[in-house]
Amino acid sequence: MVLLRRGWDRKTLQLGLIALALGSAWIVRETQGALLLEMYQGITRPLEMLQTGPTPEEKLRDARVLELQARIAELESQNQKLQNLVGYVEKQPISSPPIPARVVGRSADHWWQEVFLNRGGNSGIKEGFIVKSEGGLVGLVESVTPNTSRVLLISDMKSQVGVTISRTSAKGVLRGDSSADAVLEFYEKVPNVKVGDFVSTSTYSQKFPSGLVVGRIKSLDLKKLPASVAKVELFPAIRSLDWVGVYPKPENPIPEVKNPQPTNPQLPKSN
Length: 271
What we know:
By secondary structure, the protein is α+β, with helices and mostly antiparallel strands. It has one domain (56-247): Thrombin, subunit H. Helices cover 26% and strands 26% of the residues. The chain has three helices and twelve strands. The strands form two sheets. Strands 1-2-5-4-3-12 form a six-stranded antiparallel barrel. A hairpin with a 5-residue loop joins strand 6 (160-165) and strand 7. The longest helix is centred in the N-terminal third of the chain and has 30 residues, at 2-31.
């Protein structure tokens, strides 16, 4: 009797497992796997939330916020100054709609120096056009073919951009450092600047309109000789560029303004 009961229990268990398998197969067939997908997402979603570090979407949103904050600081600074001085005409800011382009070429040996875009002369792009992305200034178009453009990045060590501190109007030259940061060499020995100040292109820049967001001060070395320097965190995600906007150079720029004489006569001339 005991053996018969054990055999019956075993068969009942087998029949139950078979029924469960058949039922599961029928549910998967009828729902086309949607139920399993929901179960999988329900299990993995809490695990994803535990992962550390910002997502790409969060990084993009942060870059946009930083750009807006920098532009607000720049506008507030400009509002505190007199703009109607006799003979003063500011460079026109970028107002034309951008030409959208995608980064399609990048060399591992020149990752921080240049990128190639999938738009060129046939799309209206010319040498000297300005390239921006989410976060601010990216670089300058150096050469153009009918269907491609080569862009010199501001992170290139050859790149030199005249910039200003939005809060105090302290000015200097920004040069690339082959990384996500750049080096700012000030004209003044002890400039009025602090960590966190926003950096934008200045009116002394000969190739860029003023007011383009670049980044913010990350660290300072006010004891550096012969002139103070700062490390600047670049806002654009130059490490992982994808889509960019290409803008024409502003028309009718102001006559060339000679740069003020820096403390160090060997400081490079800004672009």
